[in-house]
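Team,

Forwarding the record for the chain on the shared tracking sheet. I've put the sequence and predicted structure together so nobody has to dig through attachments.
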Amino acid sequence: IVTSATKELVMDTRRGLFTINAPAAQGAVGFLRDAGVIRLPNVRIRSSALHGTVAVVALDAKPLDVSRRILVQTGTRAVPTGWRESVASWEEGGRTNQGLRIDATGDLPWRVRNETVTVTLPRAAVTKATVLDGNGMAVPSITGVLARTRNSVRINVPPGVMYVVLE
């Protein structure tokens, strides 16, 4: 485990997980599905993505627990249409290495894996969720994204959605 001097960045190489834990930004990158629920001070993350990223950032520069404008951003595997790869091995430096060989680079449009992501904010002050498209434009009326409980807000990021703004 490698930790930054401020303890805000942590790389756990055994789990394949990198976490960000700052007052106005928290998130995770890596093997999210295998990590289960990722618990940070003001954010809980669960994702079906084998490998992905989730960032929760205060857009008003306030700490997440008091922010009134928050961006939830997700990412997962994206490849061009027609992308093909195959298992390969090669010799290098006297060692046999295993990996993937790119057989075809494909073309537009890009294909983004549809994964499920749930983000829970235990003390959030937000009451509204706006889903944005890939260009940052509001998507009309997607229901069921935000659910409030007495002490938290849960965001169910719809499959294929990369951005949700909470207010």
